[in-house]
Design goal:
Layout (H helix, E strand, L loop, with lengths): L2 E8 L3 E6 L2 E6 L12 E4 L4 E4 L5 E5 L6 E6 L3 E7 L6 H14 L2 E7 L6 H14 L4 E4 L8 H8 L3 E5 L6 H9 L24 E5 L3 E5 L12 H7 L1 H4 L19 H7 L5 H21 L1 H22 L5
Parallel strand pairs: 8-9, 8-11, 9-10, 11-13
Antiparallel strand pairs: 1-2, 1-4, 2-3, 4-5, 6-7, 12-13
Length: 320
């Protein structure tokens, strides 16, 4: 017969799965779709029979091949971990938040290592995150002082939660603190720039008592967004809600007179950095869509070619 199991570790050619009878290793057949940590499978005594439908899937653009790189499946919430011992970068946070919403999960920005900075620096970081990602929950914590850990325990209770962020942000240390024991390897960060080594080298799901599952992921140096334009626009609804008030229907929101988006920046109701992030992520999503759709890419190339020819024609001096 077959039994349901969950992927707790992905080792390339095989996965470690957990079920009612404990853990086991199953080879990945070439006929199977790509698997992710957190996937639910049906297996028999020696092989994977079926991959069950996913409720969510977190992925990013593969920095080497350009396609989708699966990060975690069937996660309910994702903690975007940022260490307060280094500058908090709004752009990185916004990219992670878009990824999480695209996956079908709920994000929370987790600012760790609050014991290393003063209250003013904490307040400044929280304000930056809230302006960068309106509506996204923010939690400040310190594993050393245990400040904020109870709120995070509520965040992960009875759920599957993944933690993402750059190396040295404290993801593995946080996972260990929430688990109450050392289940993820940790290492020191460099003093000069607070950068960490990639302590976690593979995505791994840790099953804890009380129906709680934590996914620890390797630190990400590059956050390539793998999503569509509609998702970006949904996440930046505070920007796109202004579009209907633009004077021109084909407004690019770059320089046109009567642009409601640019007007909101001028009167201070829209943060410029958030507007610039929307433009960047939208352009990246459009490029990803073109890569995935050869017909759309060909049409875009033809349109670009026509625009170039038209520009050259307009620059040509008139014939006498």
């Amino acid at each position: 017969g077959v039994e349901p199991v969950r992927v707790v570790r992905h080792d390339g050619s095989a996965v470690v799965v957990a079920g009612a009878d404990g853990t086991a290793t199953r080879p990945i057949r070439s006929s199977l779709p790509p698997l992710a940590v957190g996937d639910w499978l049906l297996v028999d005594h020696e092989s994977i029979v079926e991959v069950l439908p996913r409720t969510s899937l977190m992925q990013r653009r593969d920095p080497t091949r350009g396609g989708a790189q699966l990060m975690a499946a069937n996660v309910d919430r994702v903690g975007v971990v940022c260490g307060l011992d280094r500058p908090v970068k709004a752009g990185r946070i916004q990219r992670f938040v878009v990824q999480v919403y695209d996956a079908g999960a709920l994000p929370m920005v987790v600012l760790t290592k609050s014991d290393l900075v003063d209250a003013g620096a904490v307040a400044e970081a929280v304000d930056l995150v809230e302006r960068a990602s309106p509506g996204c929950d923010v939690q400040v914590c310190s594993v050393r002082s245990e400040h904020g850990l109870d709120a995070l325990r509520d965040f992960v209770a009875d759920r599957t939660v993944a933690f993402v962020g750059e190396s040295g942000a404290g993801k593995s240390t946080l996972v260990n603190a929430l688990a109450g024991r050392e289940i993820a390897a940790t290492s020191a960060v460099r003093k000069g720039d607070s950068k960490g080594r990639h302590t976690t080298t593979a995505r791994e799901l840790h099953v804890l008592p009380g129906h709680c599952c934590l996914v620890d992921t390797p630190g990400l140096r590059e956050i390539g967004v793998f999503t569509d334009v509609d998702t970006v626009d949904d996440v930046y609804a505070d920007v796109t809600d202004l579009v209907d008030d633009c004077r021109f229907n084909d407004c690019t929101h770059l320089s046109e007179p009567g642009c409601a988006v640019l007007g909101a920046i001028e009167d201070g109701t829209l943060d410029r950095s958030r507007y610039e992030s929307w433009l960047d992520l939208r352009a990246e999503a459009e490029a990803a869509e073109l890569r995935a759709d050869p017909a759309a890419r060909h049409a875009a190339e033809r349109k670009f070619g026509r625009l170039v020819k038209e520009a050259q024609r307009l620059k040509r001096p008139p014939t006498p």
